[in-house]
Amino acid sequence: MLDSAYLVLLALIVFIEIFREKSSKFDFLTLFNIYFALMYPLPAFLLAFDFANAVSSLGLGISLYTNKLQTVLAIFVGYFLVVISFYSKSAIDWGKKISLRTRRNNSVLIYAIALLLFSSISIYVYGLQYGSFINALSQASLIRARAVEGGTLVFFKHFTLFAMPASYLLGAVVFFQKNKKINPLLIIAVFVFSVIVAVIAITLTGGRGYLINYFLCFYLVYILKSKKISWTFNILFGIFAVSFLLYGKVFFFSLTALPQGLDAVINTFVNTIENSSSNGFNFYQFMYNFQFPVHSLEVALYRDYEFRWFADILYAIASLIPQRLLGVVPPETIMYYNTQYILGNNDFSIPTGFLAFGVYSMWWPGLFIVAFTYGWIGRCLQTMLIKHVNQIFWMPFMYTAIAQIWMDFLSSDPETFIQGYFAFLTGIGLLFLLYSNISVAQQKA
After folding, report:
1. CB neighbours (10 Å) of residue 63?
2. pTM, whole model, 2 decimals?
3. Beta bridge partners of 101
């Protein structure tokens, strides 16, 4: 049966991850293997077998099954193309050619503080269009669901997440930089403040994944530097991540009571949980957070539409520019049509995932291009960055953050990715341009 193929793929992913050689306790492909398994073969298997009414739990109210030959082949081909390109000689060679040499280490602290201040100002300005920062925070889930319209200052939302790279850089100063001339207690205080601002910025976006990835980054840096894995922390963080995925929406909804005080938020959260139809942990409710790429791939393979020819990359960049400045209404991106194809409406947005994005763009050749390019870029970045983990004090955080960003594209599309990681891509890009010399070794004759 085709359904059992997903179990075979899950077993192969586990086998590959256990027995392959890695440059550290975890690498880019480790994160990809975990996330890919959660996003594609596992929900596809559950949907195909309809265990415990999985279709009603994961089916978004539609009847999409994933035991069709093309869907199975697309998931297998996509996975192995990523793995093959990740181990391609050209990706490794290019990663080795690119070298970084740090400069002006001490001023990285100033850069981090500048990012933090810009993030804080952006949070304040962004909140003004909703009356106040508290109102914006309380309406975060409604804003994300497009139930509340934004004003002319909505563009500042892109800058609020500068607090995350700022927090990572400040963490690098606290934990790894030697011969610090500034009072360590003052630096620690600024770092703690950056964590608070980062959590506030993430809460404004209403994104549960950002918050989980934010704290996970610190633990992954610990693993990278200490070469140790704490199973106690793994279990505790796993409980936190699962709980937040299950009840994160309830938490963000509870913030609507924030203007009435903290007690009102707590009461709203408790009452919402008590009135919920679910009792205790529900595995299918947990997997609901990961099954969207499977539905998107199914629709992309079996629905009639015109190919996108990768134009969504340009549309995604244009989506960052306010329409008032652009002067024209930009075309709808593939996320809009993907949501329409799946739900029949656009009550909320469903990213395509990287495999469906390739199929929408150029059918099967598009899937080949996206999967191979994705794996190639990941290996090139890993090879380039891992060389400097013990040489540049802020590199452990940047290596881990970039690995997470690369990993997250597999469940995204260009619009989701560029808008969601605008602050990261800009902040990290400026960091490399301003505080390191990038050189490419010449090919020997």
Report:
1. 7
2. 0.87
3. 437
